[in-house]
Amino acid sequence: MRLLIFLLVFGFSGGAFAAQPGLGFGENDRLDELFTEMQSVEGEGAASAEREALRIFRQSGSAAMDLLLARGYAALDVDDLEMAIWHFSALIDHAPDFAEAYNARATAFFLLGSYGESMADIGTTLALNPRHFGALSGMGTLQEELGHFDNALIAYKAALALNPHSPELAESVKRVEDAHSLLH
Fold it and tell me: How far is the C-alpha of 18 from the C-alpha of 125, rounded, in Å?
């Protein structure tokens, strides 16, 4: 229930969204186009729009900040979670309005088993970028891991509403619905 309230309070809706800090001129317009594509096309067109949206999400507007993000992701790739958290935290210190920094650190915290910190960073990510379907998916994964299937389903469905042709999100919704029906 708190998850649903969170999504409503932080503006998950189909309406207009505020500009995401850190995006270059025209990038929010491009995101609007990409989300329209994700809603209306299927197959490779939707997948391409998703990849482009994720690329834009990862742009801080600063080469130095992008380097910290890249170093954090490189540390994640080799399972050096503490170093990844260090890089992402340094990035947050220097660019506190950059949603992807919180999303990346949420992933590292989740992999470390620090679920409370992960959820806090997901919340900040969504407050800064309510259309971050990756953060919503991460919220679903976290809630599913904790056995909070109702909350997981809400998060996955919110992500799927933004990215309706994602096979991974559709599978997550189906998996949780199936697990939920077995429990009731």
Answer: 14
Question: Hey, what are 115's tokens?
Answer: 């679920």
- For residue range 3-17, list pLDDT tens digits in order: 443 443 334 433 333
Count Cα neighbours of 145 within 13 Å in the Cβ-side half-sphere.
14
What confidence score (pLDDT) does residue 184 get? 63
DSSP 19: P
Return the CATH superfamily for domain 60-129: Tetratricopeptide repeat domain (1.25.40.10)
Alpha-carbon distance of 140 to 175, in angstroms, equals 11
**d(C-alpha 20, C-alpha 99), whole Å:** 8
Contact 65, 72 (CB under 8 A): no
Query: pLDDT for 58-104, tens place per residue?
Result: 999 899 999 999 999 999 999 999 999 999 999 999 999 999 999 99
Residues 26 and 9: their CA atoms lie apart, in Å, by 27
- What's the CA gap between 150 and 133, in Å, rounded? 18
pTM, full prediction: 0.84
